[in-house]
């Protein structure tokens, strides 16, 4: 059985490694449009941007790993088309046949339209190594950076820039940063953290346009105010990379639509990672995280090998900003109550409940709260809220209750 994987990122690398670990002995081809071997993205907006990590340390596996496992790694060219009838993919002039195909094409950052200055020089997205290498020279002390979008990636870039002595302003259109993903309590905590480091956070602030002829020189806000900038980072979210799948006629529903096993609407084609939406409860989820990319990819590999195992997502995420380590377990969709535990020293955690059901935990500098919260959610346990907020209660004991 010949297996082709399109997209040499976190999920793609996980699928091919798992297939070999499970004993698949047919051909495996991993095709990536980037020139770098599969690498981890989280450090791109953290240690790598700060200059504290070499590019080689980003690689998920050594070059030898692919050679030793006879995984054909083909980099630097995108797959242009899939022919689901002939069961081939087209790369340049070549057609590569497959028996089973896996799509791990990730996501693409939303860009600002060129009509409002999105195409100017000095305007950057943070998605891949190339983006970050291009923006790194801009990070010199005293320069003025405007970040459009107060999500995790924009805020991480703000923390790096502030550490390096830049003058940083974050623009957020919504009433609060992180509104789409976190509680007001978490937003308040992160806002205060940035403000303590001199970052200006402007919420409920719309962008009218970027200013400049060829290179960005500033921004105009919807209230008419103009702010100068030496460069701009746009962090306004991502979209699943579905165009190839769409052109191949696969069903799309907020990502490439898969069934519980990770199979798409074509029985020989699978999908995993940022690009894939999968059934969960009554609805569908699409997650944008390393944990999901790895777990879902491994389940797809198992199912290609015949395991017949539905994917059970156990969401987790993290973000590093300054000296704060934020760890998130679970997914807070539909929460109605926040229970705060702490602060205790610099540790504090926010616990999301829907009725009496524990959904998620945001833990700042509190790995214990994160670990316990994660295991409680995985075990389907929901401690009484008063136990969570009571610092005299040992969290670990809740796991045994
Ligand atoms: P990717 O890793 O993006 O890989 C997809 C690959 O497919 C890309 O290399 C792309 O070029 C390639 N591709 C697309 N189309 C084609 C084609 N037609 N032909 C060939 N190749 C193609 N997650 C966390 O959990 N914690 C974090 O702290 C965190 N921080 C992040 C910071 C940054 C700056 C970014 C960008 C992401 C971060 N994430 C974080 C998210 C996490 O990195 C992603 O969820 C994860 O990489 C998704 O893996 P993936 O394999 O689905 O996609």
Can you characterise this structure?
This protein has three domains: 3-108 and 238-304, FAD/NAD(P)-binding domain (3-Layer(bba) Sandwich), CATH 3.50.50; 111-234, 3-Layer(bba) Sandwich (FAD/NAD(P)-binding domain), CATH 3.50.50; 323-400, FAD/NAD-linked reductase, C-terminal dimerisation domain (Enolase-like, domain 1), CATH 3.30.390.30. Helix 1 packs parallel to helix 8. It has helices at residues 10-21, 47-50, 63-68, 129-135, 152-163, 184-196, 243-247, 290-304, 367-378, 385-389, 395-400, and strands at residues 3-6, 28-32, 71-75, 81-83, 88-91, 94-97, 100-103, 107-109, 123-124, 144-148, 167-171, 200-202, 207-211, 218-221, 226-228, 231-234, 238-240, 256-257, 269-271, 276-280, 283-285, 316-321, 324-330, 337-344, 347-354, 357-364. The protein is globular, with a radius of gyration of 22 Å. The N and C termini lie far apart (48 Å). The mean pLDDT is 97. The protein has a five-stranded parallel sheet with strand order 3-2-1-7-19. Strands 9-16-10-11-12 form a five-stranded parallel sheet. Strand 13 and strand 14 (218-221) form a beta hairpin. By secondary structure, it is of the alpha/beta class. The chain binds flavin-adenine dinucleotide. Flavin-adenine dinucleotide (FAD) binds at residues 6-12, 31-34, 41-42, 44-45, 78-79, 104-106, 126-127, 153, 241, 244, 273-275, 288-291, 293, 317-319.
